[in-house]
Amino acid sequence: MTFKQLKINAIAAAKCGNWDEAISVNDQLLEIEPHNVNTLNRMGVAYAQSDQSKKATAIFSQVLEIDKHNLIAKKHLAK
Known about the structure:
By secondary structure, this protein is mostly helical. It contains 5 helices and no strands.
């Protein structure tokens, strides 16, 4: 499956509230592009929605290491 197809699947899983699937697919995407900020943010949201706040915090912190002005990560870390 291509990166684009995986991205579509990850977004679809999140829209359906299937957070375990979203985490799994985003993990596959991160294997291809480990520093992709959009994928990391999706992963962070999926962790947050599945009550894995420590993992979500770690992911959003990683986003800010890559992009210190990232508003999505800042917003989630401020919660």
